[in-house]
Amino acid sequence: MDEIITGFVGLDVHAESTAIGFAEPGRGAPRFVGTIGPKRLELTKALGKLGEPGLLRIVYEAGPCGYGLARELAVAGYRCEVIAPSKIPTKPGERVKTDRRDALKLASLARAGELVAVTIPDERDEAIRDLSRARVDAVRARHKTRQQLKALLLRHGRRYVGKSSWTAAHERYLAEISFAHPAQNIAFTEYRQAAGEGEARVQRLTQALTQEVERWRMQPMVSAVMTLRGLDLVAATTVVAELGDLRRFAHPRELMGYVGLVPSEHSSGSSRRLGSITKTGNSHARRVLIEAAWNYRFPARVSRALQVRQERQPPEIRAIAWRAQLRLTHRYRRLSARGLQHNKLCVAIARELVGFIWDIGRHVGPSA
């Protein structure tokens, strides 16, 4: 039985305003309802004039405002979808973009069935994802402060000759440095303190992420993904938090395309031309997978750390992880022997690694 829809509503949502477009079933032109403020009561009041909650289909683009609006509308009985902005059809001749036009366009395309909805994550899953991304931001900030400190030292000819930076020996070396002018000593101390605070922040977030994952409903899947080489707790948590329940992907190629690791293509007639990877979808998961692919340059073996991660996993999960090692290490050697550029090689390995992660996702799902 087909669902009954009496109207299609397009929302152009911003922090301080929301533009509303409405299209009735049929071929009539959509009409602009108006622009309201950020209060949800104003939106529900405007929607109430357009029809019953269960008879309206509401859409808005995924963006910085998140999924809170979709969840609130769902509680109120409305059918709301969050649309992937990259999949919205665009006419080559369109050169004017306004909130009013965007709302009308969303309503019209929703009626035509030409919009692609994204999966709205569970609130618990989104919380872990936010914590994981906060740690990534902290790591980047720490890297930046360390660069600034080293730049100051390099400008004044202070070069560390040890093997590794940011170790105990390096900290002792920094503690012995002094400058002739007090202003430079102040700048140097401030940089050191910022680097130390950045390291402490990363450690706090790492510990918090470890503790929260233990109580997370996706923890069984995180542990299963950790059986793969190159995916420790932080990396596996990032992959699972960003991708969610993998059982929604019917084929591994769908997951590869979602992560943006498939090559772009421009074919016409008998001509077929492949380009660089699409880089669509989730960039956080793609980054972690490409970093993990670098580990398959070594021969296949189960290290002590990997053995510990695999100990409590069922035989079928360990078998998938071992097949992944055999396949990907062999693949790495073959592509390397062909002289393939290093970055392309890692992307190719990461694409195949996604297939093994998808296979694990078929066997392990979220706990109740």
Task: Give an account of the 3D structure.
- This protein is an alpha/beta fold.
- It has a 5-stranded mixed sheet with strand order 3-2-1-4-5. A two-stranded antiparallel ribbon has the order 6-7.
- It has 13 helices and 7 strands.
Helix/sheet category: alpha/beta
Please tell me how large the radius of gyration is.
Answer: 26 Å
Beta percentage is 5-15%
Main sheet strand line-up? 3-2-1-4-5
List keywords for this structure.
368 residues, alpha/beta
Topology:
Blueprint (H helix, E strand, L loop, with lengths): L6 E7 L4 E6 L7 E6 L3 H9 L7 E6 L6 H8 L3 E5 L15 H14 L10 H33 L12 H8 L6 H33 L4 H7 L7 H11 L8 H8 L3 E6 L2 E7 L5 H11 L10 H7 L4 H23 L4 H22 L5
Helix pairs in contact: 4-6, 4-8, 7-8, 8-10, 9-13, 10-13, 12-13
